[in-house]
Amino acid sequence: MKHLFLLLLLLVVGTSFSQVKFEGVVKDSTGVGLELANIVAINQATKTLEAYAITNDKGRYKLDLEVNSTYTIQVSYIGMKQISETVETKEASINKDYVMSYDNSLDEVEITYEMPVTISGDTITYNADSFKNGTERKLGDVLEKLPGVEVNDEGEVEVEGKRVGKVMVDGKEFFDGDTKLATKNIPANAIDKVQVLKNYSEVGQLSGVTNNQDNIAINIKLKEGKKNFWFGTVTAGAGSSSNGELYLAQPKLFYYSPKKSINFIGDLNNIGELALSRRDIFNFSGGFQMPSQQSGTNISLGSNDLGFRQLQNNQAKDINTKFGAANFSYSPKTTLDVSGFAIFASSRIELQENSSVFYTDQTLGIPDENTQSNTKQKSDLGLFKFSTKYKPNPNNQMDYDILGRVSKDEQLNGTFSNVIGPINQFEDANPYKINQSLNYYYTLDEDNIFALSVQHLLQDEDPFYNAILENDPTASTDPFDDTAQGLGLDGTQVNYNVNQEKRVKTNQLDAKLDYWNILNKKSDINFTLGTIYSNQQFDSNIFQVLDDGSELDTNTVIPGVSDVNDIKYTFSDLYLGLHYRFKTGKFTISPGLSGHAYSVVNNQFGTKTTDNFFRVLPDLNVRVQLKGTENLNLSYRMQTQFTDVNQFARGLVLNNYNSTFIGNPILENSLSHNVNLSYFSFNMFNYTNVFAFINYSKNIDNIRNRSVFQPGSVIRSSTPFNSGLEDESLNASGRFQRRFGKLQASVRGSFGYSKFNQFINNQISVNENYNQSYTTELRSNFREAPNFELRYTYGVNNSDQGSRRTKIYTNAPAVEFDALIFKAFTFKTDYTYSRQTIDGNSNSFGLWNANLAYRKSNDSKWEYELKATNLLDTSSRLQNSNGAFSVSTSEYFIQPRFVTFRFIYNL
């Protein structure tokens, strides 16, 4: 590793000293500098475009050229005559200004080479071929080479520090704009242009009256040869490992034409390559956004999914997946668009983990717990969406969407605890969800615009939980005896076989009507009338299966508590909002407020609890447009936060073998204040990208849990209540990125602070957490030479939990390398190392992957690839983390070394 870093450093130094600066100013005939003029340098020896630049607001440009070379310099600007001349470089820097004149002729101008980057208004267009070196295979490989664009390990895309919300291909949404599916599946050789659309608005009628500055979309323009034809790749592979035989099949097919598009992605493998993780699929919103999202009301519907143990970094001891996804769009006429997708995902996953949990407040007498667990998961999930957009004229548009999701999930977990003993847990669920949305936009005239948004959610969840714990009827006490007695279980059985059925039904309507009146070119006023109506029903029951197989309907002995729940919870919000927006100089100021009439009712065990009240919520947004690509944004929002039916249900609920929960029917709402300040800057002159933000949040009378641990045990019971205290959090993050010729360097850091009050065994303590993370990165983008990426992350997690303070240090270097060898072989490798230190004790692990591919030429139909993952045969990942009142160290087992050979056919 040390020699590799030294070799890359020498490569960087050698590159830096072999270049000469060519710079100056481009101006018009009056001497005024021209912003966004294009300058390209074409090497006459190789006949390739070697460098390019875009002038800044003063007309300055700068190119890095090779010494002792001859170039054709082309200078172009819209509406002016192109300048072309020959320049010879020596070893000294060259300073040269260009004066451009207006072009009144209608003759076509021959452009020999296309600019790698062009800017037109809010659209930045990248010519993909200008950034490729032949090692790219997917869209993500191309995007991460574009200046100002970042692709993280999860496949999410950021532009100038802002998250991309939608990906389109030739103007058509790709699986509803999902960035992960796009970056990992669209072939790199099909991409002609990448268009970054800033200030993006899906509804053109609202683009002038809504704040879209943070909305970014990407549109992929296909090469001409990829239109009206099927294209894509079909991959098949096999291999072996210590786990047995390996296989994979991955067809990825695409068809695009002016009127229709069809996409199909298939994936069948047992090597742990996930097209989408379970979390990704459940977060696949289909583009739905709540109409009341900006109203000031925040209502939680809760989650009753199974307690599925999440994969760490998409890795596990064993992963078998099946994935199929199809997406279509069709425009039978110019006024109507129809689109949709269907996704099926099936997985069989095994997880193994060893954990040590240390409770932070030693005065409470809670023993530390060591556990060994093995979990098997089965999940089959289906997701579909159908959308229509009808726009008969520029003044009318109607959209309708329906999104459905159904799943069948099971989880079997075997755990051994040094405190409780052996525990077997089984969970299953078959939930479904249907979400519908209707939007209508009407422009009466240039000064009056109306918008109606209605969304309906229907959801049914039915999680089942079963836990089997050992019991010795002859022993005076077993670790679970006190909990079993409280639940009313029969203590004469050999096992405590406790079961819980739950059913949660949710029906929610969210609607609003907006009216904008444009007062003049610099100001407008917006009135909003909206409502939220939510109805949830929650039923649960606990019963025991006896040794003879019969069932015992338990009856808890805790005073005032039942093991049965039957609750109806209704929430409604009728609100009226007023927002005024005006522009003055560089400032855009948008103050607003909304008045809300709230009603919260829960009805259970014959008792009805009602809370009706009125509240006014202010908000403010101030944006300072310092330059075209530099802005400062300040926002403030007051929110009323409401909880879900699970928190109100006063019957006893089993969350886990060591955790029971009793709701509180008299819970009230909490109030939050949120302040956010952000800064963005992107300089195309020197490709400097800077962003920073800071967010402060204060929650008043927040809902917290009061937890009581059984004496000498890790089993606890929790009840929510309004704390009457204040919880605070402060988060800050920033990144500085700059290109130096073919090198790109970046530094980013984040800091987080949170303070909340926790209640354990009737003792109140303050929990404070400080998190810091800093990452430096150096990346190259050579056309001919090999490319590399060096990255180093340092993190500190400092937590003060009651009577114990814990510090966790993380050091994580990483390196990636790729090279095109003899224009036919592509070699890629990456290595990551992580070391964590807690209380002076360190643990570490390293992961190394590599693959070698052969393709005779870029136009070849066939490609052959040898791919190896986890070459070091690392058996587990080691991780330290802290929770609300504990610190844990875990060993998480992952798949062994896999080696596969693959055939790839390019359509």
Number of strand segments: 53
How many strands, which pairing sense, and closed or not: the largest β-sheet? 36 strands, mixed
Low-pLDDT residue spans: 12-17
Q: Whole-Å distance between the termini?
A: 39 Å
Topology:
Layout: H1 2-17, E1 19-28, E2 38-43, E3 48-54, E4 60-66, E5 70-76, E6 83-88, E7 94-95, E8 98-100, E9 117-120, E10 123-127, H2 139-143, E11 149-151, E12 157-159, E13 162-163, E14 166-169, E15 172-173, H3 179-185, E16 191-198, E17 216-222, E18 230-241, E19 244-256, E20 260-269, H4 278-282, E21 297-299, E22 318-333, E23 336-359, E24 369-393, E25 396-417, E26 421-429, E27 432-445, E28 448-461, E29 464-470, H5 481-487, E30 495-520, E31 523-545, E32 551-553, E33 564-584, E34 587-604, E35 607-627, E36 630-642, H6 645-648, E37 652-656, E38 659-662, E39 670-683, E40 688-700, E41 703-709, E42 716-722, E43 726-740, E44 743-760, E45 763-780, E46 787-801, E47 804-821, E48 825-838, E49 841-854, E50 862-869, E51 876-882, E52 886-893, E53 898-906
Parallel strand pairs: 1-7, 1-8, 14-17, 21-36, 38-42, 41-44
Antiparallel strand pairs: 1-4, 2-3, 2-5, 5-6, 9-10, 10-16, 11-12, 12-13, 14-15, 16-17, 18-19, 18-53, 19-20, 20-22, 22-23, 23-24, 23-52, 24-25, 25-26, 25-27, 26-29, 27-28, 28-30, 29-30, 30-31, 31-32, 31-33, 33-34, 34-35, 35-36, 36-39, 37-38, 39-40, 40-43, 41-42, 43-44, 44-45, 45-46, 46-47, 47-48, ...
